[in-house]
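Lecture 7, part B: from sequences to assemblies.

Below are the input chains for today's worked example.
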Amino acid sequence: MNQANLRTQVTVKPANGGGGDTLIGVEDVAVFYNDFRAVKDVTFNVERNRVLALIGPSGCGKSTLLRCFNRMNDLIPGTRIEGSIVYDGQDLYGPDSDATEVRSRIGMVFQKPNPFPKSIYDNVAFGLKVNGYRGEIAEAVERSLRRAALWSEVKDRLKDSALTLSGGQQQRLCIARALAVEPDVVLMDEPCSALDPIATLAIEELIRELVAQYTIIIVTHNMQQAARVSDETAFLMVDDDRAGYLVEMGRTDQIFTNPQNERTEAYITGRFS
Amino acid sequence: MIANNAPNNPPNSGPGAAPGNTGRGGEFDPRLRFRQRMGAVIFFVLLAAVMVGIVGLGILLVQVVIQGAPWLSWHFVSDFPSRHPEQAGLRSALFGTIWIMGLTALIAVPIGVGAAVYLEEYASKNKLTSIIEINISNLAGVPSIVYGLLGLALFVQWMAMGRSLLAGAMTMTLLVLPIVILASREAIRAVPDSYRQAAYAMGSTQWQVERLVVLPAALPGILTGVILALSRAVGEAAPMIAISALVFLTFSPTDPLDRFTVMPIQIFNWVSRPQDDFRGLAAAGIIVLLLILLSMNSVAIYVRNRYQTRSEE
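Predicted structure of the full complex, as structure tokens:
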């Protein structure tokens, strides 16, 4: 895989919005795959220790936008991003920013559980070793598994292959693996779409617990899930030129009970696809 | 095999449908018997095609075993070649083969896997890369004597290695490298991208992703390819004749710069003798060579099965 050359138009600005709690400021972001503009005109702030849900129809660029926060789009050749994303005062796409370093501070959980074909222990220890963790690895593994509410289920079988776990357990293992690196932000790309309702509930409860220590941005197709787990919701839609754009963003209860934009209302009430 | 059902009523009977009939017009000529007989005939033709290979191999094996078995003994493996058939062994050839295989693996695996990792994971998709890829695929089909002559000119003479094990192993490396690269690329390509994504998302550098995730996951496939490539090399006589010539050695090589002979050369040597006894020796040599080949192939199969079942969900 290639680290695509990103020709970034950098406009270094502090995040607007004034609130002291702003952790990530997104300003005028557009994402291109070669000539195709997948996302345009996105501006919003992400508050610290909150859950932000990105919702919208398929193809509206939710996942693309999510992957901008930890520069995963860099891995797709031909991807280019315009605008700026400022995280904790640092321009993520600025000249001093390093994608590897960004990813160790902004972790990610994927749509399909993707544990390595290694033991449960080695899965969690992976990020520690990669990032040169100097402390006691076994302790850090236990801490991460506890945070992901998985410890009691796996503590007697840490040496077993991670692939012997159920789908829901695998996804919590992936969360534990991401937490082990001690990120500030955890990105979740439809983390429950491959799980059954019970496993989904477990993950949702976990998200509510984690938000005390982490900032979470979650992409979801499930309106009820967005309403249940998020503090804030951003609604994206696809324009006629097939580019995703931000329609509305606000507190989740306000978006779901009193949306300002009629398209938002139509979407959350299920009146269009 | 396809069972032919009783004719169903087709929705469209067509204009020629005779009323009161089963609903199908006279425009069909099913020739059911003929079609079924045709199927049976084809089955036997295909079976015969398979049998040509199996029976041929079987006869060959039986003949070799009958001819060679009386000559098989411990001293056949442990003694050096001799003018007297009853004293002759293939010790020097066996050791030469082992040396060549070891050295070839040592040189070919790092280079081959490195090239595969580069082509699959690092190289950008451009014209140069695709030219390299096409060339590697073509190299896999080059006759082995060509590699022998190349090795003779390049390693033996130009690099002045002489007719040594090292020159032989490097020639064999050229021969197996395309196979190792192709097999390794295949194995690397089969590693799910989600593993790479997960590793990157935890702050791994590309080399960490390759070393800790991609290569371990691809290892069984790579090993299988390496073993199969080496087992092809074990049986190659042509390039080794070019490098080492038909020699009569009564010592085992102890150093990479020693002269050597390998089993196919020794077998070739015995076959070309006029005396019948040497033909028996050649057959015995073939049995030993086949045993080595078969055990290498079984190791490859074992490795593949063992790790495949492990990494599947």
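Note for the exam: Strands of chain A lie at 22-33, 36-47, 51-55, 79-87, 90-91, 106-109, 185-189, 215-219, 232-238, 244-251. Keep this in mind when comparing with the next example.
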